[in-house]
Design goal:
It is a single chain. The chain has a 5-stranded mixed beta sheet. The protein is of the alpha/beta class. The protein has helices spanning 2-16, 51-54, 57-63, 98-111, 128-139, 145-155, 163-180, 184-195; strands spanning 39-40, 46-49, 65-70, 84-87, 116-120. It contains 8 helices and 5 strands. 47% of the residues lie in helices and 11% in strands. The protein has one domain: Protein-Tyrosine Phosphatase, Chain A (Alpha-Beta Complex), CATH 3.90.190. Helix 5 (128-139) packs across helix 6, helix 5 (128-139) packs parallel to helix 7 (163-180) and helix 7 packs antiparallel against helix 8. The chain starts with a helix and ends with a helix. The longest helix has 18 residues, at 163-180.
């Protein structure tokens, strides 16, 4: 009975909120519409944010952002000729396919590792943290999912990563652990198998 009450309260908060929420683990407001800047992740060249940050040309210029990764299926702002864009529609995809998208974003970020990057979804709370954590995980095989997500939440405390996508990150982590013990050729085959899922 207590669990049912808590679920009903969470649903009520979600419905009463001004902000949409489809995360069953946390429906409290996570990004205010006026929050139009991104947040730097772990002293890296990656910022996390929402669509309002992506359309804030002044902030993008101030931070020297040169690469924008949109995970909402379209870019929120005006496109600029001196920017590089990766646009992916990850909203509502089957969680089994998230691994291939994590790899895609990871490879794109690696090709632009010398540039400052904004990774965003609508509010910067559910999908962006998973993609950034996946990149950190694939970039440093000694890092675990918990540490990668912690690095993202240190940048933006309001993140609420999609729990079904996080499960897929744990699958990647366990595969990477096994692959770390294997020759480099097998590791390359594992990464290629992720790409085949796209």
């Amino acid at each position: 009975m207590r669990t049912l009450t808590l679920v009903l309260i969470a649903v009520g908060v979600c419905l009463a909120s001004e902000w949409p929420c489809n995360n069953p683990l946390g429906c409290l407001p996570f990004s205010h519409p006026e929050d139009n800047t991104g947040y730097r992740v772990n002293n890296s060249n990656i910022w996390i944010g929402g669509a309002s940050a992506a359309s804030n040309r002044g902030w993008l210029t101030q931070e020297g952002i040169q690469v924008i990764v949109s995970l909402s299926g379209e870019h929120a702002g005006e496109r600029h000729p001196n920017m590089h864009y990766l646009v992916k529609d990850i909203n509502g995809i089957n969680h089994k396919h998230i691994r291939a998208h994590v790899l895609d974003v990871h490879e794109y970020l690696k090709t632009h590792s010398d540039k400052r990057v904004l990774v965003y979804c609508k509010f910067g709370s559910e999908i962006s943290p998973v993609m950034i954590a996946g990149h950190l995980l694939l970039n440093d095989w000694t890092l675990g999912v918990d540490e990668a997500l912690e690095a993202v939440s240190d940048a933006l405390e309001r993140v609420r990563p999609n729990p079904t996508y996080v499960v897929e990150l744990y699958d990647i982590e366990s595969s990477l652990y096994v692959m770390a013990l294997e020759p480099k050729a097998r590791r390359a085959r594992y990464l290629e198998s992720l790409r085949d899922e796209l």
